[in-house]
């Protein structure tokens, strides 16, 4: 599948720039917000690969519903990221149907359109405005950016991405839930960033003690190891049902760590099936949005000293979905 963005920039007089023309009555989605920078920051947080060219992706799913927009990206089925743009983030929000719909997008192209405004908003008395419109008939998402006397329209073709993997099901119970400052978790993960940058097979062991309410992260290889322990007083909240001992991809945790630079608080949960869920809150301009990550656990065989045996870690298998077109999705 391919993605296309047609961008036209028009300079208008201030009197003519009240906004784009009203949406057609058949628009499935029509909304307006002044929180362009927060949305750009949130969507950037779910680009799981650094320095990726816009046309190269990542591919994303966007669920449209009465409650707002949910963007999802993933790396295979072992790492998934979501952003929630709730309806109250928008000054105007109208969704035409009762059931949610799911569309595919090139998120790199969406971000490239939004970043047209980067670095300009501070010089204006009013923040830039974003008008979003989606018509099912044209299979095209239209972003209209209004900044001062400039109006920019980006039309982005939707894609056939199938369906994302199923993570975070409501039927899965949690083994523990820890809330701590994002800075604390970020600094702890930074201490584990040693060794060759291309060691994508590195594994992080995560342990939570039910009695002591501690979180311990450990990275080992054949030469040495590094361990970080967060004591109970580092947690704003700690609900621990049982001891937890799971392993995850070091590269996947690095992707989570990048978003922590913009977050204020992080909630870490480990589910009974071993899946790691990290949710963080990002604030800007009096509004907040949420980013969520799901990491599949790894099955790792360790020797008596805690080092991985030959053969390397293996991701636990997960189910996947695959369909085509614009999907009607049940709310969750």
From TrEMBL:
Ranges in coiled-coil conformation: none
Keyword DNA damage listed: yes
Pfam family, one: Rad1
Keywords: DNA damage, DNA repair, Nucleus
InterPro entries for the chain: Rad1_Rec1_Rad17
Superkingdom to which the source organism belongs: Eukaryota
Gene Ontology BP terms: DNA damage checkpoint signaling; DNA repair
Protein's cellular compartments: Nucleus
UniProt-annotated stretches for the region Disordered: 1-21, 313-332
Any single Gene Ontology cellular-component annotation: checkpoint clamp complex
Predominant localisation class: nucleus
Family in the record: Belongs to the rad1 family.
Protein name, UniProt field: Checkpoint protein
């Amino acid at each position: 599948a391919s993605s296309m963005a047609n961008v036209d920039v028009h300079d208008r007089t201030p009197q003519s720039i009240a906004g784009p023309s009203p949406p057609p009555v058949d628009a499935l989605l029509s909304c307006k917000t002044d929180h362009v920078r927060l949305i750009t920051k949130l969507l950037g947080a779910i680009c799981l690969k650094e320095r990726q060219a816009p046309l190269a992706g990542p591919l994303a799913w966007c669920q449209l519903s009465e409650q707002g927009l949910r963007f999802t990206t993933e790396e295979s089925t072992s790492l998934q990221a979501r952003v929630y743009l709730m309806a109250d983030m928008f000054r105007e929000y109208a969704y035409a149907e009762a059931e949610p719909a799911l569309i595919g997008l090139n998120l790199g192209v969406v971000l490239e359109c939004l970043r047209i405004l980067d670095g300009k908003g501070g010089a204006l008395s009013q923040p830039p405005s974003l008008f979003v419109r989606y018509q099912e008939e044209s299979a095209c998402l239209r972003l209209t950016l209004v900044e001062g006397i400039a109006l920019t329209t980006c039309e982005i073709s939707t894609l056939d991405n199938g369906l994302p993997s199923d993570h975070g099901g409501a039927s899965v119970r949690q083994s523990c839930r820890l809330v701590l400052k994002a800075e604390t978790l970020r600094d702890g993960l930074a201490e584990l960033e040693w060794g060759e940058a291309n060691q994508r097979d590195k594994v992080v062991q995560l342990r939570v003690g039910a009695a002591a309410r501690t979180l311990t992260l450990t990275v080992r290889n054949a030469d040495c190891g590094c361990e970080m322990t967060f004591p109970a007083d580092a947690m704003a909240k700690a609900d621990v049902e049982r001891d937890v001992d799971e392993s995850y991809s070091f590269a996947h945790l690095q992707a989570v760590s990048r978003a922590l630079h913009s977050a204020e608080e992080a909630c870490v949960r480990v589910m009974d099936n071993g899946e790691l869920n990290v949710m963080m809150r990002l604030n800007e301009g009096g509004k907040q949005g949420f980013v969520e990550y799901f990491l599949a656990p790894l099955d790792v065989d360790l020797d008596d000293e805690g080092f991985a045996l030959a053969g390397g870690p293996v991701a636990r298998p997960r189910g996947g979905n695959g369909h085509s077109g614009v999907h009607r999705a049940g709310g969750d």
